[in-house]
Amino acid sequence: MNEQWLTLAGRRLVPVVQGGMGIGISAHRLAGTVAKHNGMGTIASIDLRHHHPDLLARIDCMHGSHSAADIKAAIEAVNLIALDREVRAAKSIAGGNGLIAVNVMKAVSAHASLVRQACESGADAIVMGAGLPLDLPELTASHPHVALIPILSDSRGVSLILRKWMKKGRLPDAIVIEHPGHAGGHLGASRVDELGDARFSFDRVLDECREIYASLGIEWTRVPLIVAGGIHRHEQVRQWLDKGAAGVQLGTAFAVTEESDAHPAFKEVLASARPEDIAEFTSVAGLPARAVLTPWLKKYLSRQPALQAKAKVRQCLEGFDCLQACGLRDGVARIGQFCIDLKLAQAVRGDVARGLFFRGRDPLPFGERIRPVADLMRYLLTGVLPAELAGAGASGVSGVAGSTAGGVAAEARSAMRLSKNAASSGSFTVRSN
């Protein structure tokens, strides 16, 4: 049996990655705990001031006495302070284990300053999606040891990034392949009706990337591919590792763990959502998105045509201008007409009536149960369920494998085991034939 590790930034990690989720869902507590268990934990960089009351207070006291430009500059400044705090706190929790990454959306106005701050604060990796990160090598040039990880959805994007970056003398340290038909949040397709396109199939992307790597003279293991979207069972982890992926990334499953930085009500909304409660729509960023049909989202979608008909250029409602292009602020009628910063901030605080709750489409490993990160990683890597859930079957653990959950765990125990040296530090590794 051969150990299967994800090698990033010179470190051997377990092949389970926690995706970045903002605003504030994956902050220092979640990312640090995942890294503590020898995984890659990811802090979402956008608007982290919401986890720091003292930083929020600095902005609140400026309203009515400072210009809009001053307030915007102050918001950007406190968010850099918040990011620094979160990275350092996450690394403290990790205790030297795993890897701490920072996710920065290319679509965010302050993406360049967030990347630089993350590097200066000691992040081990920068993950960038929501746009092509063509300038990421330049932004991180003074921090050559920071791993760079683009998020893409098809082989065309992979080919473009590899060719552009090779001209700059840099290769990605890994690439996340996110399937827009399954993932939550902002999605890597042009339109909602493209989310299920065959070009996003993991099988197809992996096969086409093998051809691209060969044509460019890149060894298959030189730029590991991490598949993301729809992963919720141990069987799937083994399946994609066997087919050539170097790792898997999950978001929603980590968002509902005990250590997630979100409010308990946020976790309950995601964990209790049924398939018919999940909706796809176009965000104010102009990208397709997937979220839970909460009261606000239901009302918004019913009013969307009327709101789009009245679209006009206006000032940013939050005085933040968080996005480079915003449908509401810029009066772009064909895309979303709401303040995404406000709605995501309400969600992380647990405001079920008014918040926007991003979620993936697929079931969760432990159904509606909120479990520790350690339980989730152990199940994904070994197939071993928590003792109190192992005998629950289909009626007790939705989405694990239904009535075959016990069989999955039994099969997995014979094919995988805990790594002795990883277990000694509280982490796990996957082994397969």
Quick structural summary:
The chain is of the alpha/beta class.
Characterization of this structure:
The protein is globular, with a radius of gyration of 21 Å. It is an alpha/beta fold and 433 residues long. β6, α4 (111-120) and β7 form a beta-alpha-beta unit. α2 (53-60) runs antiparallel to α3 (68-94) and α3 runs parallel beside α4. Mean pLDDT is 89; it is low at 398-427. The protein has 17 helices and 15 strands. Strands 4-12-11-9-8-7-6-5 form an 8-stranded parallel beta sheet. The protein has a 3-stranded antiparallel beta sheet with strand order 10-14-13, with no helix packed on it. It has a two-stranded antiparallel ribbon with strand order 1-15. Keywords: Dioxygenase, Flavoprotein, FMN, Oxidoreductase. It holds the Pfam family NMO. It comes from Pandoraea capi.
The rounded distance between the terminal residues' Cα atoms is 5 Å
Strand order of the largest sheet: 4-12-11-9-8-7-6-5
Q: Strand tally, please?
A: 15
> What is the count of helical runs?
17
How is the main sheet built?
Answer: 8 strands, parallel
Derived from helix and strand composition plus strand pairing, the structural class reads: alpha/beta
- Which regions have little confidence, pLDDT < 50, spanning 5+ residues? 398-427
Shape: globular
Please outline the helices and strands.
Layout: E1 2-4, E2 6-8, E3 11-13, E4 16-18, H1 28-36, E5 40-44, H2 53-60, H3 68-94, E6 99-105, H4 111-120, E7 125-129, H5 136-139, E8 147-152, H6 155-167, E9 175-178, E10 185-186, H7 202-216, E11 225-228, H8 234-242, E12 247-250, H9 252-255, H10 264-272, E13 278-282, E14 288-292, H11 295-309, H12 327-330, H13 340-348, H14 373-382, H15 393-396, H16 405-415, H17 420-423, E15 430-432
Parallel strand pairs: 4-12, 5-6, 6-7, 7-8, 8-9, 9-11, 11-12
Antiparallel strand pairs: 1-15, 2-3, 10-14, 13-14
Helix pairs in contact: 1-3, 2-3, 3-4, 6-7, 8-14
GO molecular function: dioxygenase activity
InterPro entries: Aldolase_TIM (IPR013785), NMO (IPR004136)
Protein name: 2-nitropropane dioxygenase
